[in-house]
Specification:
The protein has 394 residues and is mainly beta. It has a single domain, classed as Beta-galactosidase, Chain A, domain 5, CATH 2.70.98. It contains two helices and 29 strands. Strands 13-14-15-16-29-25-24-19-22 form a nine-stranded antiparallel β-sheet, with no helix packed on it. Strands 7-18-27-26-23-20-21 form a seven-stranded antiparallel β-sheet, with no helix packed on it. A four-stranded antiparallel β-sheet has the order 3-4-5-6, with no helix packed on it. It is globular and about 60 Å long. The protein starts with a helix and ends with a strand.
Length: 394
């Protein structure tokens, strides 16, 4: 009788645990719980960390990446192991607690702090767009193929002559659905869908964004596929805004290689509005074509390179920090990437290098008949943006 009671109690205890055990068993390799930093929520969704152990004793390898699905799948941290040195921050270092403070507490209604840390994804436009400002200064209007677009006027310079404008897209506060993590050969991969729709009433048609980030030893791949799931044509451009770390802390000796023959002249470095002229860089401080790169020195940059040189199916930028024996390659793999923006202030220990489709202010009259490289998606059509990072010892 006593033994029967023990068996019955054991069965009852086991059954009572099923609600806790079954979800983990059913999710299997797609579970997010095994990722140590996933407990912190940003933007109302848990952050996710992909990890892998470094195995090489002779070459650097990526080891982790942390993302915020609740903020448009923004990348918060990327780390790589360099033998003999340990883990190095590939992005300008920030803790998850500090990122949460900035993005969940300090940020504004537009999500502007998102593009001031980590690497935010910028859709359906990166960079600046000018237009007719509303009476209250909150929105502006511009035109595309006879259609009026009303955009948040979310940015302005600091000088009295500054003009309020739209900047860096409309997914800075977007939620990501169907977030999935899985093991792959040599690493991990995360994917999710941003159902952007008409981007809060600011854009034409309706858009879904499939975001995929892949972590392996040799590379970190980021891709976004934009699908026009609506009923009319729309313009689309895609980019990201990564703040790449300079590990030595000596910005002056860091070398940058950008394979661009021209850059877009701007009115000044406060507005940073294009004049509509593409200027040859040869013989100027903007000529960063030399193999191995050109030292940043004390030069300020907030410029858009174009007329890009492609080799082996990629347009590749290099960041080389000789003092740290650290190198980073940023490979643009999508043919629609027509411009590279670099923001590099002399007082900061980072360079922001953005592979993007378009020139700044793509709907502006200053461009005349120049193709500003916004992609037109008809209903049912898609475009893919794809960038790959690699680390190396120079």
């Amino acid at each position: 009788m006593f033994e029967g009671w023990i068996e019955m109690k054991t069965l009852i205890d086991a059954v009572s645990l099923l609600p806790l055990v079954l979800p983990a068993l059913l999710v299997g390799p797609f579970a997010l719980a095994g990722h140590a930093q996933a407990a912190i929520e940003i933007g109302g969704q848990k952050t996710v960390t992909l990890t892998r152990k470094a195995v090489s004793t002779t070459k650097p390898e990526f080891t982790s990446i942390t993302l915020a699905p609740g903020r448009g799948m923004e990348i918060i941290q990327i780390k790589a192991n360099f033998p003999g040195k340990g883990e190095v921050d590939v992005l300008d270092p920030i803790t998850l607690d500090a990122a949460k403070q900035k993005l969940d507490v300090d940020d504004d209604a537009h999500g502007n702090l998102a593009y001031r840390l980590g690497s935010a994804f910028l859709v359906p436009y990166p960079n600046r767009i000018r237009g007719k400002l509303s009476a209250d200064g909150k929105t502006l209007t511009t035109e595309w193929q006879g259609h009026t677009l009303t955009l948040p006027a979310n940015n302005i310079g600091t000088l009295p002559t500054a003009e309020r404008h739209a900047m860096h897209g409309l997914i800075l506060k977007a939620k990501t659905d169907d977030v999935t993590v899985k093991k792959i050969a040599g690493g991990e991969q995360i994917s999710g869908i941003i159902h952007a729709g008409d981007f809060g009433g600011h854009w034409l048609s309706k858009t879904d964004l499939d975001v995929t980030i892949t972590l392996t030893a040799d590379a970190l791949d980021a891709s976004i596929v934009a699908h026009n799931v609506g009923g009319e044509a729309e313009p689309i451009a895609i980019a990201w805004h990564p703040y790449f770390n300079l590990p030595s802390g000596d910005r002056t000796q860091v070398k940058i290689h950008i394979p661009g023959a021209t850059n877009a002249a701007v009115d000044n470095y406060d507005n940073v509005f294009p004049t509509g002229k593409l200027v040859p860089v040869k013989g100027t401080q903007y000529d960063l074509n030399a193999p191995g790169g050109v030292a940043l020195g004390k030069n300020f940059y907030d410029d858009n390179w174009n007329t890009l040189t492609w080799k082996n199916g990629a347009v590749t930028v290099e960041v080389v920090d000789p003092a740290a024996k650290y190198g980073l390659k940023i490979e643009g793999l999508s043919p629609d990437i027509k411009a590279i923006q670099m923001y590099a202030p002399p007082t900061k220990n980072f360079v922001a290098i953005e592979h993007q489709y378009n020139f700044a202010d793509p709907f502006g009259k200053e461009w005349g008949s120049t193709d500003t490289h916004m992609v037109t998606l008809k209903p049912g059509e898609s475009t893919k943006w794809h960038v790959r990072l690699k680390v190396f010892v120079p």
